[in-house]
Design brief:
With about 290 residues, this protein is mainly α. The chain has helices spanning about 25-35, 40-50, 50-65, 75-85, 115-120, 125-140, 145-160, 170-200, 200-215, 225-235, 240-250, 260-275, 275-280; strands spanning about 65, 90-95, 105, 110-115. The chain contains 13 helices and four strands. It is globular, with a radius of gyration of 19 Å.
């Protein structure tokens, strides 16, 4: 797979674009279900009371390099451009040493994106537009509060059981399940923001493929068309195979914060082929109201 450089695409911007333009309906429904869980307000209150967002921010700054025009300027400029594309303030950007390729967004009051060092080796410059657009999508969609709460407090609920905040087991399971389901659907929305920034479906599909396959010395042999065929095959499996898919979800996917990789790329392809992406690219999209 040939490397794509930053200069090969002249990207369009989307002034005043609103979340409604690209939010996944499954994200909306899962968020509404999460917000109906009676325990949620108490958990969020505890999150703020503990000052968790502040110490997560400080921990990230202590363990990462903050990027800027004179510090890892390539990725900094990509973040600046992607923020302009999505018409949102640029968050802080950090780079941290980690051999497992990934990235995350955080900071409720002071938004930031942190890239792991291995993600820079895994993705080319064009694919980084999708990755960074994905993380910006989380920020623009208001995902950070719930993502942060789930990251910090849900493991605590699991460890302490009934002693945590006086909650019962059933209540904890309901809250955890709602968080996991919403988190998975939020990734679908964020992937759409990634495509809006890459502005090339092949680039976004290949970025997801490279994250799935991971960094390896044969990465130049990767083929996103074959990966898309695999995703379609998985989606269209027969009845017996579908039972296997259900069991995989029950034993693994149900407790995961992210959808299965092939499901993600298939969902993104469906959105792309629906014409929604093309309409936004042509300037036909919902805008923020004053």
């Amino acid at each position: 797979m040939a490397q794509r450089t930053v200069e090969t695409i002249e990207r369009r911007t989307f002034p005043e674009i609103s979340l409604d333009a690209f939010v996944a309906e499954t994200d909306r429904k899962a968020l509404a279900a999460l917000q109906r869980v009676p325990l949620l307000p108490k958990v969020i209150s505890k999150f703020h009371e503990a000052g968790a967002d502040r110490w997560i921010y400080c921990w990230n700054m202590a363990m990462s390099v903050r990027c800027g025009p004179k510090q890892y300027g390539t990725v900094y400029r990509i973040v600046e451009e992607c923020s302009d594309i999505l018409d949102m303030p640029s968050p802080e950007l950090y780079l941290t040493n980690n051999p497992f390729p990934n990235a995350f967004a955080g900071g409720i009051d002071r938004p930031y994106i942190t890239l792991r060092s291995s993600i820079i080796d895994t993705l080319d410059d064009q694919q980084l537009y999708h990755l960074i657009g994905h993380e910006l999508g989380h920020i623009k969609a208001g995902h950070i509060l719930y993502k942060s709460v789930a990251m910090v407090l849900m493991p605590l609920l699991e460890m302490l059981g009934r002693r945590t905040f006086g909650l019962g087991d059933v209540a904890q399971i309901a809250l955890a399940s709602a968080f996991f389901e919403w988190s998975r659907q939020a990734e679908i929305t964020a992937d759409r923001a990634g495509l809006l920034c890459s502005q090339d479906f092949s680039t976004s599909a290949s970025a997801n493929m490279m994250l799935t396959g991971g960094p390896n010395r044969l990465a130049h042999e990767a083929n996103e068309a074959q990966f898309l065929d695999q995703a379609r095959t998985y989606q269209d499996m027969n009845f017996m195979d579908s039972i296997g898919k259900m069991m995989v979800f029950l034993y693994y996917g149900m407790g995961s914060t992210h959808p299965m990789p092939v499901h993600r790329v298939q969902q993104l392809e469906q959105w792309y082929e629906s014409g929604a992406f093309g309409r936004i690219l042509s300037g036909n999209y919902s805008k923020e109201t004053a």
